[in-house]
Design brief:
Layout lengths: L2 E8 L3 H12 L4 E5 L6 H6 L1 H18 L2 H4 L10 H25 L3 E4 L1 E6 L2 E6 L2 E12 L3 E3 L12 E2 L1 H4 L8 E5 L3 H12 L3 E5 L11 H13 L3 E3 L2 E7 L5 E7 L6 E5 L1 E4 L3 E3 L6 H4 L22 E3 L10 H15 L13 E3 L4 E6 L2 H7 L3 E7 L4 H6 L5 E7 L5 E8 L2 H13 L4 H5 L10 H10 L7
Parallel strand pairs: 1-2, 1-6, 2-3, 6-17, 8-15, 9-10, 9-15, 10-11
Antiparallel strand pairs: 4-5, 5-6, 7-16, 12-13, 13-14, 18-19, 19-22, 20-21, 21-22
């Protein structure tokens, strides 16, 4: 006999657990199947959360070890205890995973440990340590997230050649770290180990860092990271790694062709992206089809090509971001309950948690030009912001793009202190269809970093006050 549920979700990451909690709140009998020993998925266990803990800790270490605090009249010195830093990271992860377990108990959600697969219409088979278990459900949700995208011809052993999973768990600071990929993950982890003492080289196939980010922001971002000590080899591809010696010998060559060369490193971090995790789920037999990039095809209500089966998060099209998956999980639960669940994909922010941070939402200048949309630009540098100037954190700027005719905010792009928190203001304005004038005429507290957003909005119409 199968255990009966209204909803069975395969995957306990941000999309899956948020979908489960909202569904339970709306009265559905819900179960989550998760193969990992803890809830929270990649994000909480080996991704977003532990990497942010290391970013925070390494920033504090750099402040104490560097000259910035001395300039403020604070004499300090620092000694790195990497094992203790890793314990700090793990403590945060453990507390949050236990928090999700508590929410499951509070909302009467069944967490079923094991590997889930669709075994027939409305049927999920769970294979775990105690054998197999059959589940029946009116609706099934695939929320299995994504996996590391490997580099052709390069084996990731998580010891010397590591993915982001190994990159947050190194036992010692590598003398030389070579990062393959200049996206969010590679730059975040590269900056962690640079602050802790590594010589960091980033190799990127394209001729720019952070593909898809506003070009003006990306250029300043690279300049700042270079000034901090990271070096970049753009327009370059890795063709192989020789592990035979004490140092890794990394073969590289120009992406467009040309003579190759060899770079040496103690650790290589492969961070070229992620791929949807869809293997072993029984999708083909169930009639669930994939697109050309291996993502599950869904309609506007997250329904797959198989009746009663839905998909959310990294396994479907769109940015592979935890908060995008969370929104989809809530929207789907509400749709299944007969409500009007919805996700506005034009307002999905992205943040790079380096120092300074980079935050972006909406369209870039490059995208607006390609689409032929007339727009206006307002910019404001943190060098002219009173709080940033006082704190000596003046790297970066805020840029607002507004429709030339309606003044609706089309995109906001920032690099600077705490912009990962500040971007939410832009998201709210865009969600409500606001204009740059709405921001410009809204009183902001002084002195704060958020005044830079207001000043950039004023700049759209050319009446910036603090230049």
């Amino acid at each position: 006999m199968a255990d009966d549920y209204d909803l069975v979700i395969i995957g306990g990451g941000p999309g899956g657990y948020n979908c489960a909690i909202r569904a339970a709140q709306l009265g559905m009998k819900t179960a989550v199947v998760e193969k990992r020993g803890t809830l929270g998925g990649t994000c909480l266990n080996v991704g977003c959360i532990p990497s942010k803990a290391l970013l925070h800790a390494s920033e504090r270490y750099a402040e104490a070890a560097g000259g910035h605090m001395k300039a403020m009249g604070i004499e300090a010195s620092a000694r790195l205890d990497l094992a203790a830093m890793m314990t700090f990271k793990d403590k945060g992860v453990s507390g949050l995973t236990k928090g999700i377990e508590f929410l499951f108990k509070k909302n009467k959600i069944d967490w079923i440990a094991g590997r889930g697969a669709i075994s027939g219409p409305g049927r999920v088979k769970v294979t775990g340590e105690e054998g197999e278990r059959a589940l029946a459900a009116r609706s099934i949700v695939i929320a299995t997230g994504s996996d590391v995208l490997g580099l052709p011809g390069v084996e990731i052993d998580e010891v010397r050649v590591v993915s982001s999973t190994g990159g947050i768990a190194l036992r010692e600071v590598p003398g030389r770290l070579l990062v393959v990929g200049a996206g969010y993950i590679g730059l975040e982890l590269g900056s962690v180990w640079r602050r802790l003492g590594s010589e960091v080289t980033v190799v990127e196939y394209l001729d720019r860092i952070t593909p898809g980010m506003d070009g003006e922001v990306a250029k300043q971002f690279q300049r700042i990271l270079t000034r901090q000590g990271m070096s970049f080899r753009l327009g370059t591809k890795v063709t192989g790694i020789d592990r035979s010696g004490t140092a890794l010998k990394v073969s590289v060559e120009p992406a467009r062709g040309g003579a190759g060369e060899t770079l040496e490193a103690d650790i290589v971090l492969v961070a070229i992206g992620r791929k949807p995790y869809t293997e072993g789920l029984g999708l083909e037999a169930a009639g669930v089809t994939l697109d050309e990039r291996g993502r599950i095809r869904v309609d506007d209500h997250y329904a797959t090509t198989a009746a009663g089966i839905y998909a959310i998060g990294d396994v479907i099209a769109g940015p592979m971001l935890a908060h995008k998956a969370e929104d989809e999980g809530v929207a789907l639960a509400e749709l299944l309950a007969g409500r009007a669940g919805h996700v506005n994909y034009a307002v999905i922010p992205g943040v790079v948690y380096t120092d300074p941070e980079v935050a972006t939402v909406g369209r870039t200048e490059e995208e607006l030009k390609a689409a032929g949309i007339a727009y206006k630009v307002g910019r404001f540098p943190f060098t002219a912001n009173s709080r940033a100037k006082t704190n000596d954190t003046t790297d970066g700027f805020v840029k607002i793009l507004a429709d030339a005719g309606t003044d609706a905010v089309l995109g906001v792009h920032m690099i600077g202190p705490n912009v990962g928190e500040m971007i939410a203001e832009a998201c709210i304005v865009m969600e409500f269809g606001g204009s740059s004038e709405d921001i410009a005429r809204t009183c902001h507290p002084h002195p704060t970093l958020t005044e830079a957003i207001r000043q950039a909005a004023m700049g759209v119409e050319g009446w910036t006050m603090q230049m």
